[in-house]
Amino acid sequence: MMRRAIYLFPASVRTTSGVKWGYINNQGRFFIPPQFDGAENFQPNGLAVVQVNNRSGLMNVFGQWVVRPKYEMISSFSEGRAQVIDQGKFKVIDERGNEITTKSYEYIGSYTEGRAQAADTREGKYLYGYLDLQGREIIPVQYESATDFTSGRATVQKPDEEYVLIDSMGKILQTYKYPFVGSLGDGLLPFKQTSDGKYGYIDQTGTVVISPQYTWAQPFQHGRAIVNISNDYKNKYGLIDKNGNYLIEPKYNDILFVSSDRVAVGKPKDEERPYMGSNYSLADTAGHFLTGFVFREISEYVHEYASANTDQNTFFINRTGQVARKLPILPGSGTLAFVGDLIRADVDQRVSYYNYAGQLVWRQNSVVQIHQGLLVREGKYKPNKDYLVYYPQIEGMQSRSAQAKVNQRLKELSQVVPITPNTQLDYSYTGDFSIFFSKKNLLEFELDGYHFPFGAAHGMPSRVFAPVDLVTGEVYQLRDLFIPGSDYVKVISDIIANQIKNDPQYSYVFPNTYKGIKVDQPFYVKDEALYIYFLPYEIAPFAAGFPTFKIPFKEIGSMIDMNGAFWRSFH
């Protein structure tokens, strides 16, 4: 497919029906109107992934569908191919949107050197092989582990626990009698001589080049490798050359390559709690430190610049680590990136665009007009570098006391709570909102949050819906929808129990965990139905998110208080 210059940029607008995404030109004007639930950057092949109703599709720069939204996921293209997830299984598509695989796999990786890892379950075991650019299984699924191809070589593990080096057609070039052999890099491979031993490096013939001495060893790149010698939870990362000489001593919390000859070297923010993260210095791969440990993050270099940030600002640095004063310097934490002829800023959970002179081209609106002089204004609360909440505030209500009361309640529900500034929290929290439903006098907000304890495997998402009466300021609860004294808890509980029992889409629910709903069960409403939802882990695995059940109003109409304020606010 012909390559096109990138000249459209994903941009979002906050509306009365949620946040919608479209594409602007380099003047900040919408070329493809905001209509999608999500939109990603245009890729060099002139295609962009967009999301509609939890499905992904492909669009060209003229706003035409190449693939209508039907997949659960579409990856970025690599070597003219992208991976898609369809009904939980992986397939490969080309740049015309054609599925080139004749079967689905449990996993397919990105293409490198004309090959992509493919994995499937065979006789209860997860095994790997490789696909070619035509989607054919060129190397059969048979290995217990596999790496991407580098210089025409890949390391795979046979079921008998032997590791072998293969070429792109699957021919075995070398066999290694070790319990672990990693990816090829610069002609060397990390390995372990014993399963409980340490890591070293061998060459392609299996000859030991650097004896085992590390508790972790990454593949070489550009003549350097990152290793760790720690024997406990306190990391000791260093940088070695191909002779095993230390160029950066092994005493740091982490080290990251940011270019072929630059690394970000991290010292722990808290020596006794290294999992809290690092402060970074920029160093060259000869071991010379170019800056102090002043950065919160340093990204990979592009066009001689890398995005970096501190607790206060986000900016570009040059190859010596100096701040690029002629490019944008923005308050907040995030990243900057050169995209086409603009600079994209992802800072404090918001996207904006600037030209190379640092002038603002576009940012998302912070005010949404509702009706009759009413509007919702976005508030921002960032008392600490690790705590950030965007929350809604209503303006224009006839009753100022009702407006003040509901706005205070919206702050509380959004987790705008006292947080100690200028101290290191042991977690991070982000919160955001959208207008989920709007009709007559009812405005329903969705308030989402994510609490991440530092060092944890994952954080915990939260979700609260706030149905607000724009006349009275009442934030309705579930019981407000029903006739007083009606047994709505039992009726709804039975309806959901029946759905779990008979609807295959709820097969993920843990056996014997659903015990019915609570009086104050989390819920939301739309025009035609009541929706009941549960929190992660409450009745289903974490991966299931927020299990949600739809109860059409016609099924529970006899219990609904048709004269009640809640119902009449939107009917």
UniProtKB/TrEMBL annotation:
Residue ranges of domain DUF3298 in the record: 480-554
InterPro entries from the UniProt entry: DUF3298 (IPR021729), PdaC/RsiV-like_sf (IPR037126), WG_beta_rep (IPR032774)
Protein name: DUF3298 domain-containing protein
